[in-house]
Design a protein that fits this description.
single chain, mainly alpha, about 100 residues
Amino acid sequence: MSTKTTPWDTAAALNDKVDIAEYLNAAVEEAMAEDDFSYVTHAIGVIARAKGMSELAREAGVGRESLYRSLSSDGNPSFATVARVLRTMGVSMQFARI
């Protein structure tokens, strides 16, 4: 007897703005601890996939293909792109002293 498994899809678990904000906060925390900010880019990409990349790109005023490239594993999005996409997702950034 074998067990059939399916891959976990984080995008399917992001149901509302609270989930999205918590997921982003966890990604930022990990990025700061590991000094690897690809965690944040990856998280934004997962959220973009959950919300629909084409619609998100249109609403953010970014080309769909450009957004795909920026949020890919080797992408390096500009801060302006990240800020536009986050605003379109309905979340904002806050900073705290460490």
